[in-house]
Amino acid sequence: MLLKVLIALVFLTMVSSLAAGAGFLLRDGQASRRLLISLKVRVTLAATLLALLFYGFYAGNLG
After folding, report:
1. Which uninterrupted H or E stretch holds 24?
2. What whole-number distance in Å separates Cα of residue 49 and Cα of residue 39?
3. Rounded to 5 degrees, what are φ and ψ at 18?
4. Sign (positive/negative) of CA torsion 42, 5, 7, 26?
């Protein structure tokens, strides 16, 4: 149960980072440092999400 909550939390954080990145792109333009940081956070969260999913399927917690 904790794993599913953690997966949902990481996914929601990733979606909020995507929205923040879109806002930075609209406000600052393409040469924004905040946009790059938002992309780095989103890539890290995506890797974490994949690792959690692989662990969940490997351990048998996700069906």
Report:
1. helix 2-28
2. 15
3. -65, -45
4. negative
**pLDDT of 30 higher than 80:** no
Is the Cβ–Cβ distance between 3 and 62 less than 8 Å?
yes
Cα 61 from Cα 9, distance rounded (Å): 17
Q: Identity (one letter) of the amino acid at 4? A: K
Contact at 8 Å (CB) between 1 and 43? no
C-alpha closest to that of 26 among 15, 38, 14: 38
Q: What is the dihedral of CA 41, 46, 48, 53, to 10 degrees?
A: 160
pTM: predicted TM-score of the whole model, two decimal places: 0.86
